Amino acid sequence: MENTQSDLSGPLQSLERVLLNELKQNQSLERVAIAFSGGLDSKSLLTAANNLYKARQITNLRAFHVNHGLQIESHGWLEKCQRDCHRLGIELACVSLELAEIAHSNIEQAARDARYQFFEQQLYDNEVLLFAHHQEDQAETLVFRLLRGSGLLGASAMPKSRKLGKGRLLRPWLNVPRQAIQEYASQQNIDWIEDPSNQSDRYSRNYLRLNILPAIAKKWPGYAKTLSRFSQQATEQSELLAEIAEQDLGQLTNENSTLNIELLVSLSLARQKNVVRHWARQLQQNSPSSSELSELFNQLGAAKEKSICIDFAGGKLRSYRGALIMGLKQEPEIIVPVKWEDINQNIVLSNGLILDFTELKSMGLRKPKSDEVVLIKPRIGGEKCCPGYRSKSTDLKSIYQELSVPPWEREWLPLVYFNDELVAVPGKFIAKKFMT
Q1: If 0-12 CB within 10 Å is exposed, 13-18 middle and 19+ buried, where does residue 416 land?
Q2: Spans of the chain below 70 pLDDT
């Protein structure tokens, strides 16, 4: 749905003004989408956005609906959302999932992951996707994360805005109390979907919402506002710690994104933990647990004399030659020899690794001649080569040592041959004789 004019027709409700101000601050008036479940909050947000559209404050407006397939009624909810959007003239993008058949251990996380994957696929360049989370949702998320043992980053709870796919996610009503949304829905005569699962305390968040938070509210009626303010403070402090970590990383990080152990231990313990958490999140998109951090710092003192290897942030953390190296949880298997039939096409090896000849060209490898067959082989021992940085040939083991290739990588790294001559180890070196 597209609007082309820009004049205001009539007064706006207070929540509509909040929405408009947030969109203006984020420079997001051109392309707006709504995460539309059909419930009270998202239906109110859809209505407010549509009123702004009719007032010609929003240029384009559409909605996304995810049918998780977890309730018998869910297909009926999809149809109602389609009718609501059709009546308003709003384009609706939908997807139907069958999560009940694929997820058992953590259905909430599976639903969230599938939902966000759909949103990322749908968003246009610079489009903003609005979520209807409010102040009580923020408080609930904070308590939930704290009970799971989250640190300061987790206490930041839900960000008001962040990058999502090609666009951005925005929660314009994050500081708005639920009561204000209920009043707006009443004023606008909004009818919405009631999900019966919201009344079941089987799920962790529902248990908090139905049993814990109401008890807190009886004693501390303003708890949601207080916790929301705390989350904002935690966000600011997390950003400050991230800035400090970036400064420390500039001093500690080697060229291959490893951490210098000697320089790391020269910092205070608090800064060591801060920079290691930040480093792990950058490389793994995941944070180490408290127990993983404790295990690392229990072993770190011996890391300069002996190698350490621990599970860490979804991967493996090892030490080698005075550096901490973040690696895969499980190393790839040794490859099966294969002929690279067409170097213009990427080749997928038996252990899942993908080779791209353009990357080898960027390292300096020339193209094979018409009488040269390109082969990919595993290391068997005794290989010799003269890398571009050397004047004489030597064995591959010595080359790996010179390049500080960790021992656990050496067995599965693929070797590229032209006929019977070793010409490259991808990502490590090119043989001098075959350089451009």
Answers
A1: buried
A2: 1-12, 99-106
d(CA 326, CA 318): 7
Residue among 373, 378, 380 at smallest CA distance from 340: 373
Domain ranges within the chain, ordered by starting residue: 14-225, 253-327, 338-434
User: What is the per-residue pLDDT for 148?
Assistant: 83
pLDDT by residue (tens digit) across 373-383?
999 999 999 99
Distance of CA 216 to the CA centre of its chain: 32
pTM of the predicted model as reported, rounded to 2 decimal places: 0.72
Contacts of 399 (CB under 8 A, 6+ apart): 385, 387, 390, 428, 429
DSSP 8-state code for residue 281: H
Show the tokens assigned to 391: 């004047």
pLDDT of residue 430: 97
Q: Check residue 356 and report its DSSP letter.
A: -
Question: What confidence tens digit (pLDDT) does each residue in 270-309 have?
Answer: 999 999 999 999 998 888 988 999 999 999 888 777 889 9
Task: Tell me the C-alpha distance between 374 and 418, whole Å.
Answer: 5
CATH class, 14-225 region: alpha beta
What is the C-alpha to C-alpha distance for residues 153 and 74, in angstroms, rounded to an integer? Answer: 34
CB 158 within 8 Å of CB 174: yes
Q: What is the pLDDT of residue 101?
A: 56
Q: Quick check: 117 and 165 in contact, CB under 8 A?
A: no
Q: State residue 12's pLDDT score.
A: 65
Sign of CA dihedral 258, 262, 264, 265: positive
Q: Give residue 8's region: left, alpha or beta (phi > 0; psi -120 to 50).
A: beta
> Angle at the Cα of 123 (from 126 to 119), degrees rounded to 5?
135
Burial status of residue 37 (CB atoms within 10 A of its CB: 0-12, 13-18, 19 or more): buried
Which fold is adopted by the domain 253-327?
Chorismate Mutase Domain, subunit A (1.20.59)
Q: Which residues pair with 324 in a beta bridge?
A: 259, 319
